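pasting for the record
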Amino acid sequence: QVQLVESGGGLVQPGGSLRLSCAASGSIFSIYSMGWYRQAPGKQHDLVAVIRGGGTLKYADSVKGRFTISRDNARNTLYLQMNSLKPEDTAVYYCNVMQAEGTKILNYWGQGTQVTVSS
């Protein structure tokens, strides 16, 4: 089992910055990927950014050049630095970990943190 706790959301003006954190605990091994997803009201759950096991990074086109995903292995913490925020970035942001167990991939999710971009 992996437990994930997000923090760092809040209200910010357009053009501002926020940094989200996701602290992981529990049986942290055989991690296939760690990433951030978001869900805006009335919209689907979308990938924002992900770090795959080999270190490969992937970003949604809408956040490229503005958001940076990083991982501190010593602290088992995942970060999302969000700069130049836009109102369309408003959503609940979720941390996700995919863990390999034999031939299965287990999905773990945090509770979500609200990000609101508004003047």
